[in-house]
Design a protein that fits this description.
This protein has 263 residues and is α+β, with helices and mostly antiparallel strands. It contains six helices and seven strands, in the order H-H-E-H-E-E-H-E-E-H-H-E-E. The strands form two sheets. The chain has a five-stranded mixed β-sheet with strand order 2-4-5-7-6, covered by helices on one side. A two-stranded antiparallel sheet has the order 1-3. It is globular and about 70 Å long. The two termini are 38 Å apart. The structure holds adenosine-5'-diphosphate (ADP). The site of adenosine-5'-diphosphate has 21 residues, from helix 4 and helix 6. One of its GO terms (molecular function) is ATP binding. It catalyses: ATP + protein L-histidine = ADP + protein N-phospho-L-histidine.
Length: 263
């Protein structure tokens, strides 16, 4: 189709040039579409918490002076929850835009995966939100130090652990396991929760994609956590995929090049 619309010319190079322009326009159009969809999604995500906050503040300001103190507190708690939601959304949007910028600020240093995961797991085990879950780590001690950005990798594990805690019932086990493979390290973050249907798997790394919209929002999810994970792993020259069957738990498989091969 594109070749058919190439501007005819006696000179081969001009023909190629015209072809390039057409390709570029198609790409521009696609990018424009993605950008429009993104703006529409962000606006939609902002609208709900803002209108809730607006409504509750108006009710409080319009002074139903006979309002019970308990109702007042309930209203304020709702306003607080939605303000926090706006805040998380903004934080995640800023993180994503930094990761997508020309200089995403990757600060690689030689890092022991075992110590990094060990300290993250210790931190999570002491959190109130994780008291009803079992968190295990099985990191092969033979894995050599990796040339990674420890703060960004910490964010990856935090996003995956937060999800595992959010979407699995009490009593579930979350395991972070890592083993050496040829020229790369494979890390698996696995939970024993409900998992997701196969049909949703290809989409969950897309921005704002949620399997159960209501449930995710209610649990404070922005719909951006896995996009951030994907970006960080790709910046390290790695890959990420998810494996799941409904009611069979969820596994995220991260592959990171070992130091010698990473750039
Ligand atoms: P959210 O902020 O909604 O959690 P994410 O990008 O982190 O956004 O995740 C996208 C969706 O993937 C979630 O809304 C949820 O439906 C699904 N998901 C992610 N992790 C898990 C998990 N461990 N178990 C089941 N579903 C999950």
């Amino acid at each position: 189709e594109v070749t058919g619309s190439t501007i005819p010319s006696q000179d081969g190079s001009k023909g190629k040039w015209a072809l390039f322009v057409l390709h570029d326009i198609t790409r521009q159009k696609r990018l424009e579409l993605v950008r429009k969809e993104f703006v529409a999604n962000v606006s939609h995500e902002l609208r709900t918490p803002l209108s809730v906050i607006k409504g509750y503040v108006e009710t409080l300001v319009d002074g139903h002076h006979d309002m019970e103190l308990s109702d007042r507190s309930r209203f304020l708690a709702t306003i607080q929850r939605h303000t926090e939601r706006l805040n998380s959304l903004l934080e995640d949007l800023l993180t994503l835009s930094r990761l997508e910028s020309i200089n995403p600020g990757l600060q690689r240093e030689s890092t022991s995966l075992r110590s990094l995961v060990g300290s993250i797991v210790d931190d999570y085990r002491s959190r109130p939100a994780a008291q009803n879950h079992v968190i295990d780590s099985e990191i092969d001690p033979a894995i050599e130090p990796l040339l990674i950005d420890p703060l960004k990798l910490t964010q990856v594990f935090e996003n995956l652990l937060d999800n595992a805690l959010k979407y699995t019932p009490p009593g579930s086990t979350i395991t972070i396991a890592a083993r050496r493979r040829t020229e790369e390290v494979e890390i698996r973050v696995k939970d024993t929760g409900p998992g997701i249907p196969q049909a949703d798997l290809p989409h969950i790394f897309e921005r704002f994609y949620r399997v159960e919209k209501g449930r995710s929002r209610e649990k404070g999810g922005t719909g951006l956590g896995l996009s951030i994970v994907k970006h960080i792993i790709q910046l390290h020259g790695g890959r990420v995929r998810a494996e799941s069957q409904l009611n069979e738990g969820m596994t995220f498989v991260l592959t990171i090049p070992s130091s010698k091969t990473s750039n």
